[in-house]
Amino acid sequence: MAEGERGAFDAPALVPLDTAQRGKGPFVWRFTLLHRLLHALAMSTFYVLVLTGIPIRYSCAPFSAELMRLWGGVERAGLIHRIAAGVMVVYSVAFLGWLSMRFIVSKEKLKWLRGYDSMVPDLQDARDFIKQWKWYFTGKDRPRFGRYGYLEKLDFFGEVWGLIIIGGSGIILWFPEFFSQWLPGWSFNLATVFHGYEALIAAGFIFIVHFFNVHLRPDKFPLDAVMFHGRGTLEYMEEEHPALVEELEGRLDGPPSPTAVLDAPAPPPSRVQTFFGAVLGFLALGIGVLCIGMIIWAVAIC
Fold first, then answer.
1. pLDDT digits 0-9 by tens, 7-41
2. pLDDT in tens, 109-118
3. What CA dihedral angle connects 207, 114, 34 and 78, to 10 degrees?
4. pTM for the full model?
């Protein structure tokens, strides 16, 4: 066989399941260990809250009795729900306090409020939203996101909003004897309505919008595990956050940093990290789809 003919029989190169590992390197640290730990806390507490809240909210659904037995009964499910809520409130308030302190001591406060590094929504995010949907259908003029795109900002501020509405109403329902000294009786009915419906909106957003963006979007399918191992290839970063990559020009020539230093060169994820990232990603997707199915079923019959 001639040398030039061998390539025709070679096996095609495998495309990684994880979008963050596709394309040319080097790898770049996208998230620090703190980011990933907070995401793990947010994900785990959110799932516990949803899976304990659904059978409490929709006790008439056929699956609710089985879910209650899984948690050890109604009282145990309520206790686990409140513990998960307390953990979420604690880490959310602590993180917001940490962000506030960093903003106060920062000498470049403008960077926190606008530009490629900011998490604060602005008019550019509205323009990017329109351009993104045009790009979905035409494949042209993709928006150039900085460190955070509009969906990531929406995720963050959605959690802040949820903490205020769901957390605030939940605390009122948690300590009715205390709050009844200051609030009229109808406020507890209002808190119940707000708590239940805002929780459904939060679950719908995470399990539909967020999961579409990290699993089902054509250029992400079937998984983007960057939040689990914290890094992505330069080509991935150029596609997802080109305005950020422009700011990193000349800063990616050094040796890979074994510890997660934001925007520094990174070593590739190990096989173990890749495996666990895929397992966690698909497990989260599967449970999320199951939760959406239960919610739709419960709303239809209750």
1. 444 444 567 889 999 998 899 999 999 999 999 99
2. 877 887 778 8
3. -40
4. 0.87
